[in-house]
Amino acid sequence: MQDRIETQRGIYLDEDSFFGSKKKRKRRRARRKKLRTTRKARPKVIARKARQKLFAKKVGNVYREIGGATAIGQAVDTLLNPVKTDTLNTPSDFEIGLPSNDGQTDIASESKGIPTAFFIIGGLLVVGVIGVIIYKKRQSN
């Protein structure tokens, strides 16, 4: 199965039982490296990588301009937990009684506007896309 060659350091195996000979393996590696360099040298690949880098830089600049993850987190928090302020500054025992249909107005006010889940999912998608871009950029370096 394997050819043995005795050397000063001991036994040297010329054949590799799984991959074949070491010479063939070196030739395969060299061929793969050559193919890889020719693929990377194509004009379309170079242009695509340049576009990707430019896009990543633009996204990074926008991300820094809006304040980074802290600002995005604060924006999501303000959307999810709006601050309730009393604009009239009236005492708590003062009430104005107006006739209304409580059931109908509550349903109508809840159905109007953008649902909160939309903001949560949108925020997660934005943070996820930025995270993937940063991961890919670090991986390519």
Features:
two-stranded antiparallel ribbon, single chain, mainly alpha, 141 residues, 2 domains, 4 strands, two-stranded antiparallel sheet, elongated
Itemize the secondary structure elements and their pairings:
Blueprint: E1 4-6, E2 11-13, E3 15-16, E4 20-21, H1 22-40, H2 43-65, H3 68-80, H4 102-111, H5 116-140
Antiparallel strand pairs: 1-2, 3-4
Helix pairs in contact: 2-5, 3-5
Can you put this structure into words, describing what you see?
- The chain has 141 residues and is mainly alpha-helical.
- It folds into two domains: 41 residues; 64 residues.
- It is built from five helices and four strands, in the order ββββααααα.
- The strands form two sheets. Strands 1-2 form a two-stranded antiparallel ribbon. Strands 3-4 form a two-stranded antiparallel ribbon.
- Strand 1 and strand 2 form a beta hairpin.
Domain unit count = 2
User: What is the averaged pLDDT score?
Assistant: 76
* Ends apart, CA distance between termini: 43 Å
User: Strand order, biggest sheet?
Assistant: 1-2
Shape: elongated
The number of helices is: 5
* Strand segment tally: 4
Output the helix-strand order.
Answer: EEEEHHHHH
Low-confidence stretches: none
Oligomer: single chain
Structural class: mainly alpha
Q: Which value, in Å, is the CA radius of gyration?
A: 32 Å
